Design the sequence.
């Protein structure tokens, strides 16, 4: 009877950990999808923009400098987003790994108690 109770407890713990791992993976996937969508929108906006502006009272390369600066800022922003996405994925993998590790410990403790 004690063995049966312990098995039920372990099954519940296993299901709980699986739910946590699944939720972490789903959250990471949703974040990654949102980041990709945002990047696509930014790229579309960048493609739609054209270099407008007259050069009255400005140096000849002013417009180009502005474009370069904007492009550099967008690249930095994209890099930051990619880093954040990578961090989320790493967090999800860590959660999954922790859940697996806990399950492994549970099973090994079961085996040692049975023998």
Sequence:
């Amino acid at each position: 009877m004690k063995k049966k109770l312990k098995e039920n407890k372990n099954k519940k713990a296993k299901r709980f950990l699986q739910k946590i791992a699944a939720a972490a993976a789903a959250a990471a996937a949703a974040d990654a999808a949102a980041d990709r969508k945002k990047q696509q929108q930014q790229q579309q906006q960048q493609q739609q923009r054209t270099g407008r502006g007259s050069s009255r009272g400005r140096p000849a390369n002013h417009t180009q400098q502005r474009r370069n600066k904007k492009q550099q800022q967008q690249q930095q922003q994209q890099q930051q987003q990619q880093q954040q996405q990578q961090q989320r994925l790493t967090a999800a993998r860590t959660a999954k790994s922790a859940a697996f590790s806990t399950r492994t410990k549970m099973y090994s403790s079961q085996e040692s108690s049975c023998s």
